[in-house]
Write a structure and sequence with these properties.
The chain is an alpha+beta fold. The protein has 5 domains: 276 residues, P-loop containing nucleotide triphosphate hydrolases (Rossmann fold); 89 residues, Beta Barrel (Elongation Factor Tu (Ef-tu), domain 3); 69 residues, 2-Layer Sandwich (Alpha-Beta Plaits); 113 residues, 2-Layer Sandwich (Ribosomal Protein S5, domain 2); 81 residues, Alpha-Beta Plaits, CATH 3.30.70.240. 28% of the residues lie in helices and 31% in strands. It is elongated, with a radius of gyration of 32 Å. The termini are far apart.
Length: 695
């Protein structure tokens, strides 16, 4: 049934670091809401979120999936997001479509990872209200207090328990609702029943409720005054204060349970519709007027002009492309025409769909707050804004995600190169964090992503979806060559073989330039010893010669070349003769000017647990890295370093091994630096061997 009231909508992002049980929790929520008739599983491929084969094989979520349910007449769309570092950018972008989050915590101490911090930071940026849910309370050595304490420290969050667990591990059987002061106990068949609070927990429950009242009273001045006067708040007053504090982002209510036994999940659904706001209760969305480039905004109301943000694209080689968007304002009907504001093109919307894993449910229209999909838009990609052409507005696009890992790809079948490139560009529509380039120097196709696993999964999808098999290779390092000194040399071409000959002579001086300055050509000819019309040919000859240095045939940089003397023949001189002469003279001069090899050096930021910092720094030193500093950050350390690219082409698996999967890094090119002499010798030999093999 289509949704008619904006106030009845909740878009819930289920977020948290990898392995905490987000998909399992979402499955039980769908079951409890009557959207499914059985609780599916990721590991056997029965999940209602429609996992890809790569997800089933690895038993982890690689991309955000969608489903929806109805709870107490509220329409809840679930966004099941990935939590592993290689795939978190998808979660960060899709969180933009949420109206609230359930942040899933593992029931143990010391398990807050950098992925959780990244997700929490994004939630803060988007000002998204949050609930926290400590799951797997039936797990051995489960704790309710430890993850709350850890998350409070690591995330800087004000977590407010509104429940207490009844038992833990194999004795876990229910929760105590501190707002209503009642016990909700699992009956063993997936249902829960209200009971009196167990006698041995009454004192702990009273003390916890006292702390709850103290914390929530601060969210409302009138309630604070009443609490200070009477020392007591009614259940509905606590509920109201929790909703205000949650919406404002100053409080994060914490619940607990177990998806495996379906204990605590129905109360969580109650909390979602009670404490998390609807789109109508959230502020207007800021944008830009594309005509006058001034800030404007849209209220999340059905009577506003239509606008939406396309936050995800799903590509199927058979079904085509689905653009998933959240309606931010107004209403849109199926078979209507809208404006892609950023690209200034009209798009015809066909059928609108609500997503149910890999299935779709058609809807006649969508109103502000709803998440829907439309098929086969011609120009629209992720990050685009759709709007009423009479009232356009442009919203900001997707996050810019840094590349961390690159591989050269080589099709296993001859002739598949073009097919592979075409398929990869389709995959980039679905996953904008993938990048495909062709290296102009090495002529390799370079596939880049957030990490090694990200690239490996892309290659698996390339084979499964498009029938293209490729091999991954470490890409060639784009070395450069330059000089450290200066020299002068003659370049001369003199050919006479009957008829008109070829003659050109030039004297060149080459000098080292400061690193990063580039190439400079100086014409110092006086007296017309080289006619004006041949000077551009001299410069062209030098530039072409710089494409291959004299050491290992890599391009040359940071050289100043001055042509200061020469001679010509009135009949035999030509542009070609002077171009060749200049090339010969340049190579001769460079060979005398202390040529050296340069390598790219990368800026790196590596986030690691405290206990791994020494090992990681030692490893960086062994890679010729230079540590610039270490910054403490929420229970971890961020190491800033500069490391030669050649030493970190396959850094991701090594870091994962050192930190037991808890480290992450970003990397970006910074500058070129001289290669040590002993390594230069090896690189030169390898280059000569490669050239010999090709000839």
């Amino acid at each position: 049934m289509p949704v008619e009231e904006v106030g009845a909508i909740r878009n819930l992002g289920i977020v948290g670091q990898g392995g905490v049980g987000k998909t399992s929790l979402g499955e039980v929520m769908l079951f409890d809401g009557g959207a499914t008739t059985r609780v599916g599983r990721l590991d056997d491929g029965t999940s209602a979120f429609g996992p890809e084969p790569e997800e089933v094989r690895r038993q982890l979520t690689l991309t955000t999936s969608f489903h929806h349910l109805t709870w107490r007449k509220y329409d809840i769309t679930l966004l099941d997001t990935p939590g592993y570092n290689n795939f978190i950018p998808d979660a960060l972008n899709c969180m933009r479509a949420a109206t609230g989050l359930v942040f899933v915590l593992a029931p143990a101490a010391g398990e807050i990872k950098v992925e959780a911090e990244a997700l929490w930071k994004r939630a803060e940026e988007l000002k998204l209200p949050r609930l926290a849910f400590v799951t797997k309370m039936d797990r051995e050595r489960a704790s309710f207090d430890a993850p709350i304490e850890d998350a409070g420290k690591a995330l800087g969050a004000k977590l407010v328990p509104i429940q207490l667990p009844i038992g833990a591990a194999d004795t876990f059987r229910g929760v105590i609702d501190l707002v209503g002061m009642r016990a909700l106990v699992g009956k063993g068949d997936g249902s829960m029943a209200e009971e009196a609070i167990p006698a041995d927990l009454q004192a702990a429950a009273s003390e916890a409720r006292e702390k709850l009242m103290e914390l929530v009273a601060e969210a409302d001045d009138a309630l604070l005054e009443k609490y200070l006067e009477t020392g007591e708040l009614a259940s509905d007053e606590i509920e109201r204060a929790l909703k205000l504090g949650t919406a404002a982002g100053v409080l994060v209510p914490v619940l607990c349970g177990s998806a495996g036994t379906n204990i605590g999940v129905p109360p969580l659904l109650d909390a979602i519709v009670t404490y998390l706001p609807s789109p109508a209760e959230m502020g207007p969305f800021p944008g830009t007027d594309p005509k006058i480039h001034e800030p404007i905004d849209r209220r999340p109301a059905a009577d506003e002009p239509f606008s939406a943000i396309v936050f995800k694209t799903i590509v199927d080689p058979f079904a085509g492309k689905l653009s998933v968007f959240r309606v931010l304002s107004g209403r849109v009907d199926a078979d209507s025409t809208v404006l892609n504001v950023g690209k200034d093109v009209k798009e015809r919307l066909g059928h609108l769909f609500k997503l149910e894993g890999k299935k779709q449910q058609g809807v006649p229209h969508a109103i502000a707050g709803e998440i829907v999909a439309v098929a086969k838009l011609k120009e629209t990609t992720s990050g685009d804004t759709l709007a009423d052409e009479k009232a356009p507005i442009l919203y900001s696009g997707l996050l810019d995600v840094p590349i961390a890992m690159s591989f050269a790809i080589e099709p296993k079948s001859k002739g598949d190169e073009e097919k592979a490139t075409s398929a990869l560009h389709k995959m980039i529509e679905e996953d904008p964090t993938l990048h495909v380039t062709r290296d102009a120097e090495t002529h390799e196709i370079i596939l880049s992503g957030v990490g090694q696993l990200h690239v490996e999964v892309a290659v698996e999808k390339l084979k499964r979806k498009y029938g293209v098999e490729v091999a991954l290779k470490v890409p060639k390092v784009p070395y450069r060559e330059t000089i450290k000194g200066h020299a002068k040399a003659q370049g001369k071409l003199k050919k006479q073989s009957g008829g008109r000959g070829q003659y050109g002579e030039c004297w060149l001086e080459v000098e080292a330039q400061p690193r990063g300055t580039g190439f400079e050509f100086v014409d110092a000819i006086v007296g017309g010893v080289i006619p004006r019309q041949f000077i551009p040919a001299v410069e062209k000859g030098v530039r072409e010669a710089m494409n291959e240095g004299v050491l290992a045939h890599y391009p040359m940089v940071d050289v100043k070349v001055t042509v200061y003397d020469g001679s010509f023949h009135t009949v035999d001189s030509s542009e070609m003769a002077f171009k060749i002469a200049a090339s010969l003279g340049f190579k001769s001069a460079v060979g005398q000017a202390k040529p050296v090899l340069l390598e790219p050096v990368m800026n790196m930021e590596i986030a690691v647990p405290d206990e791994c910092m020494g090992d990681v720094i030692g490893d960086l030193n062994s890679r010729r890295g230079r540590v610039l500093g270490v910054d403490p950050k929420s229970g971890s350390q961020v190491i800033r370093a500069q490391v030669p690219m050649a030493e970190v082409l396959k850094y991701a698996p090594d870091l994962r091994s050192i930190t037991s999967g808890r480290g992450s890094f970003t990397m970006a090119f910074d500058h070129y630096d001289e290669v040590p002499a002993h390594l230069t010798e090896k690189i030169v030999k390898d280059s000569e061997a490669a050239r010999a093999a090709k000839s």
